[in-house]
Design a protein that fits this description.
homodimer; mainly alpha; Farnesyl Diphosphate Synthase; two-stranded antiparallel ribbon; about 0% strand; globular; Polyprenyl_synt (chains A, B); magnesium (chains A, B); Polyprenyl_synt_CS (chains A, B); Geranylgeranyl diphosphate synthase, type I (chains A, B); Isoprenoid_synthase_dom_sf (chains A, B)
Chain lengths: ~350, ~350
């Protein structure tokens, strides 16, 4: 994906980003597994399936547990505050638990049948287990943080709770957008800030909070994470329309099929001009016809072409670039070791320069 | 309900229990309303419907918000610790939020269409809103407590989180029992302790924790609330089979229709003897026939009679009495004003001597 041009992490190679992600996984996965094992059966099994540790038959698996960007950010944030990476581990695991709570519930609400190239939990174990295990992961996140018993853990829990509330607000907004004819660019950005920005903000600061950072430093890291989340989401919205199904694991025109009012769409509709107006007419007609499974590839291709012609694709690319720049600039508000700052820039580059 | 014989709260009249409950409502409802108003639309509306503040059309209503025993307990527990009732308000509201989170999700999982004589949220606003608003209430509970910013609030949040985890474990156990042929009395009691006891334990101690009580005193109050919860649930299980539909608002033989493996059923099955064996055969045959809507009243009446004949009704009444006695005895482990102890006994009487 070349949505972002030159990035600032020239000194951090792809290899070292992979090492950061891998290190995050190594430090956090054993803790994640041990807290998931606290769940009453069959929730422990259902959660293990969700995390890719076992397959549908209950046999050990090496599933795709996701990119694990959030744990890596949480550990780096501890180091940014001068603490060892290990200080961030409970925060990293708590954020992963909240993230996966939201995946379990959102997949059910959205009717998504696939995640990480496997059937979703509600599809395999039924809606009740998806609800219950999601609830349990959310409660576990708070349990894990609060049992640290420190004032820092209390502050971290408060920030995580605030992020969780925003995450839920964002999902509520996303669902309400489906029933609306028009959504403004500002509303879309607010929704994406809640749904994606807030938890990435928390991931990027929670380790620092646990490591004893000042509120001002934690806020600077939150700002980095929030705008990184918005950059991430802008790229995600581009991939949702123009991504390669082979690498994204989703269908072609995935977001158009789901009629998502994502950034490229709302930006194109707001742009004005002939392509924007034609797109508006088509989407309005589509909305009156709730079943679009019968749409041909050509019909999706036409909508995608109109979004691009109206400038929605270019605007979203620029938006990703703007959010990336704001994220990187926020790092200068905090005094941190140069090496850690370079790594945070490197992770930001990884998040925005991607094709899946 | 005369399941419990003589109780100890002779000095607390029904009027003064009603005053306790009403006082709890007066102190907590404004705070509950103000935190619910923080939710993004349409979650604020959906939650207001759930709490009975508005009707399906969105017009103001004076709905039945439930007995409000938990808020009253939370405020009394603050007073037990020598603090003013007001000190317990954030705890009372947080417990109510968690309780209602579980109602929203459980009604959806259980397919229950009615609650407090009104349609349930998932039935009116759809499953997604029931999931989302439940999630939001859970997060709000932690938010409200943690924003108090005190060490006591941190301890209270930790106890509330522990209770929430047990609540979820209990619901998971309850669901798993539906798919099993036999459940032991011990398993049933464990499930009910998780599903009902844990949150009542938290309600009975959270005000004290916020009011600065020692861990030992908070534990004594938790013990009172836990066993009170088990007594409450035993009565609930009796009403679920033999309650008067006019007062309970449920169908006749409600729990038998839902094939719940409640205490009277598992106790009857464990008792042995001809009635117990006949009941076991019938329930086993029922389990092979998943649709029992066609069952006649006589068939339910036969099952209820066999449960009673096998001793399930009497055992459950005795169990309620035992749990009540254990709850009351726990109060002597803490040094508290006599007047408050009398009120806690009075509330316990109210909880176990009821017909709906």
């Amino acid at each position: 994906m070349s949505a972002i041009g030159a990035t600032r992490g020239e000194n951090v190679t792809a290899d070292s980003v992979n090492a950061l992600l891998e290190n995050g996984r190594i430090l956090t996965t054993p803790v994640l597994r041990s807290v998931v094992a606290r769940l009453a059966p069959p929730m422990d099994t259902v959660a293990s399936y969700h995390f890719g540790w076992i397959d549908q038959a209950g046999l050990p698996a090496e599933g795709d547990g996701g990119k694990a960007v959030r744990p890596a950010l949480a550990l780096l944030s501890a180091q940014a505050a001068g603490a060892p990476a290990e200080a961030g581990v409970p925060g990293a695991v708590a954020v992963e638990l909240v993230h996966n709570f939201s995946l379990l519930h959102d997949d059910l609400m959205d009717g998504d049948e696939q995640r990480r190239h496997r059937h979703t939990v509600w599809k395999v174990h039924g809606p009740s287990q998806a609800i219950l295990v999601g609830d349990a992961l959310l409660a576990l996140a708070n349990e894990l943080l609060l049992e640290q018993g420190t004032a820092e853990a209390g502050r971290a829990t408060r920030r995580l709770t605030s992020a969780t509330r925003k995450l839920i607000d964002g999902q509520a907004q996303d669902i309400s957008f489906e029933h609306r004819e028009r959504v403004t660019v500002a509303e879309c950005l607010e929704m994406e800030g809640n749904k994606t920005g807030a938890l990435l903000a928390c991931a990027s600061s929670i380790g620092a909070v646990l490591g004893g950072a000042s509120e001002a430093d934690a806020d600077a890291l939150e700002e980095y994470g929030y705008h990184l989340g918005l950059a991430f989401q802008a790229i995600d919205d581009l991939l949702g329309i123009w991504g390669d199904p082979e690498t994204t694991g989703k269908q072609t025109w995935s977001d158009l099929r789901q009629r998502k009012k994502s950034l490229p769409v709302v930006a194109a509709l707001a742009a004005g001009g002939p392509a924007s107006e034609r797109l508006g007419e088509l989407l309005l007609a589509d909305a009156k016809n709730p079943e679009n499974d019968a749409f041909s590839e050509e019909e999706f291709a036409l909508r995608a072409a109109l979004i691009e012609e109206a400038g929605g694709r270019e605007w979203t690319s620029e938006e990703a670039r703007r959010q990336y720049a704001t994220a990187i600039a926020a790092l200068d508000k905090m005094d941190m070791p140069d090496e850690i700052q370079r790594k945070l820039v490197g992770l930001a580059d990884f998040v925005v320069v991607r094709n899946k």
